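Morning - coenzyme A inputs below, output right after.
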Amino acid sequence: MRKVAVIGVGMTKFGLLFERDLSSMAVEAGSLAINDAGIEKKDVEVLYGGTMSGGLFSNQEHTGSLLADRMGLNVPSVRVEAACASGGLALRQGYIDIASGMHDIAVVGGVEKMTDTLNTTKVLATAADVEREAVFGATFPGLYAMMAKLHMHRYGTTEVQMADVSVKNHANAVHNKSAHFQKEISVDDVMRSQKIADPLKILDASPISDGAAALVLASEEKARELCDTPVWIAGSGHATDTISLHDREDITTLKATVAAAKQAYGQAHLTSKDIDVAEVHDCFTIAELMAIEDLGFVKKGASGKFTSEGNTKVGGKIPINPSGGLKAKGHPIGASGVAQAIEAVLQLRGDAGKRNTGAHTALTHNVGGSGGTAIVHIFKR
Ligand SMILES: CC(C)(COP(=O)(O)OP(=O)(O)OC[C@H]1O[C@@H](n2cnc3c(N)ncnc32)[C@H](O)[C@@H]1OP(=O)(O)O)[C@@H](O)C(=O)NCCC(=O)NCCS
């Protein structure tokens, strides 16, 4: 396996971008990443694009070809789908491609246009087990609410501790001009917000967002030739688990996260103690709490207290989601995993402005659905 670096990043603003379409957002993010890498379009040899569903959201499939066409690139182009982990998986597929020696320069991206339909919750539920969960009316807020209930019952986790995740991530997003929300909120705001699936409230949830994000990946030889500040992919892990919750032994942990993290830590020869900053999959506040346990930053059941003590803030023991996370930066499904990697790169380059943590090693964690897929990457300066 060859070493692989990220040499360019670019993203659109995330939010309710009613006037934009899927391809224009993808082209904007891809072009920004190519410019940031200081290369030309003709240097790009392959594209990997993560999208949950162009078809169900916007009536447009065959997005591999579409995005290559709109980018003006006549190169192999692969659409990658793993629900909310589509972007993370696109990154991993691009990484494997370059590491294998097949190509030297890839653009990997993610895009989702979620506001073209009024059926967003129903479309999202197609990423659950349709025959065994969604058919009974289960939605993602409902599935994560069940995880939260058991976590609260077993470990004493409280609604206020979950609210602290949201307050922190909103505070971080104030310093991120690409974020869907740039607005501080309080614990009281969260506690008083509309219940969507008990115990989760609207301010415990990531929003419906549009947006795109892209990276340029390069082989070691090309990265050293083209870039003064390459960020190296030190580890990459990918695991799956049962798609439906009821088939799992324990719904307070995502086995796929634990397995993907083990692969990534092993490949990087690192442990959780070596990670300086992480972007984790906080589609709901309970998901961030479970993630920091499953990734080994805190022992099982201790994440609520750890968060409320301020350990996951920028400047804390292990800053989590300095970008604002899915909660406040936004969650355009296919783009989220790639945007997490962008934050990792900005942090390692020292280009994250007021969000800078001075990190040398960063981790990203992207989940598909309620844990049917998990992708973990580790990045180093
Ligand atoms: C929580 C949710 C149901 C709210 O949707 P909604 O009830 O249609 O909300 P609306 O779009 O009508 O917005 C109402 C207000 O709340 C705000 N809002 C909506 N979702 C929000 C969120 N997640 N966080 C913060 N504010 C939010 C809107 O900005 C709007 O504010 P305004 O009145 O000041 O303009 C929706 O955001 C959701 O489904 N989120 C989860 C997405 C998901 O499941 N993703 C996959 C995860 S696996």
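Note: The CA atoms of residues 36 and 292 lie 31 Å apart.

O.
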